[in-house]
Amino acid sequence: MPVISTPIETTELCSYGCGKVALFKNKAGRLMCAKSANSCDTIRKKNSDRGKAAYSTGKRIPADELYQQLSKETKDGMAWTRGKTATTDKRIMSGEDHPNHGKLWGSSLTGHTQETKAALSKFRTAWLKNPANHKKIQLSGKSWMELCFEKWLTENSIGGWEDEKHFWNEKLKKNYFVDFLFEDKKIIVELDGTQHRKTIEQDKIRDEYLSSLGYTVVRIQHSEFKKRYFSETGFIDLLGM
Asked: Domain limits at 40?
């Protein structure tokens, strides 16, 4: 996840006027009671009221009404495949016996043979297994937890670690990119944000696979990470040091 805000400890109030104590600071330097602005009750209500006002004054038009106002030429351009056939457009599949007869090329895989499906699957697997394609898969930046943990490691002169180390599960045909790997100690540290509340089963399967490779997986939950990072506790004990 990209870094939206940074946890802070302060007695100052949220900049959006909700009256709550600020827990985060965003990139613009504004204090927030929640990690994102839209999680603040006050700013969410302001956005809702602003949207309702825009529709009531005509500044915004509902999508179905806007579509009715478009010209016939524009509507035809939005649905250019209507009425077209293989004889009038080469992009339409021909042959009444074709599974995708009358559809665009590539509209689904139902028109592929078992041989082409197998070839596509083989190519996809080879592409996913290549660590060089990691940047194309992992489009978002590091989370604030990862940046803070990396900072803590540096400040405490702890080396011998790698971040985003690539593992490939051949059985499940899945990529695993672990947050931090300490190869000498065979320890993997995973920093679990709140989104991991919805991926408990997937994380369990992932951990079992990494354990089968001889690694000890240490998962640090969001709440525990904050307590350790903002106190003198740190993470030394979790790293077996």
From this structure: 5-57
Report how far residue 190's alpha carbon sits from residue 176's, in angstroms, rounded to the nearest whole number: 11
Instruction: List phi, psi (to 5°) of 21.
Output: -70, 135
Neighbours of 115 (CB within 10 A): 8
Identify the CATH number of the domain in which residue 180 sits. 3.40.960.10
What percent of the chain stands above pLDDT 70?
76
Report if residue 229 sits inside a domain.
Answer: yes
In angstroms, the Cα distances linking 131 to 85, 172, 175 are 43, 17, 9
pTM exceeds 0.85:
no
Residue 186 φ/ψ region, left for φ over 0, alpha for ψ in the -120 to 50 degree band, beta for the rest:
left
What single-letter amino acid sits at 101? H
What is each CA distance from 136 to 17, 127, 131, in whole angstroms?
Answer: 40, 11, 10
The residues, ordered by sequence, that sit 6+ positions from 40 with a Cβ below 8 Å of its Cβ are: 14, 16, 18, 20, 32, 33, 34
> Which pLDDT belongs to residue 9?
85
